[in-house]
Amino acid sequence: MESKKSEYEDFKINTKMLLSALWTSVIFLYIYGDYFELYVPGKVEGLLNGQNMLNTPYKLLFATISLALPSLMIFLSLMITPKWNRILNISIGAFLTLFTLLVCASSLSEWRIFYVMFALLESIITSIIIWKAWRWPMN
After folding, report:
1. Both ends of the chain: CA-CA distance in Å?
2. What is the pLDDT of residues 89-99, one digit of tens each?
3. Is residue 74 a contact partner of residue 89, using CB atoms and an 8 Å limit?
4. Is this structure's pTM higher than 0.85?
């Protein structure tokens, strides 16, 4: 009697879809990290009285741009041509990998250990984005 080997159905995921999904994961990690930071003692009081890291319009603008990039990449990864898609994913992925590693290094304290974990996960995912974009298959 012949036994059938059971295998789960699998299919190749389009590179654009994969990159978009990875950027979606990054933005969720950003959101959760910023939300959990509200539980750090003194954080809410600092937000209310202006004693926080984003205490100038230019720092707030830099933070806005940094957080807008992965949000935009979710859409752009699906919509732009592979050539520009590859360039943007590699360059923005590299910038954000370095940025989140700096956040990781500057967050080494007991109350920010969760931030270190989020920053490491974000860096791993943005590194995967760089790798996947770098190895984008040619036709």
Report:
1. 43
2. 999 999 999 99
3. no
4. yes
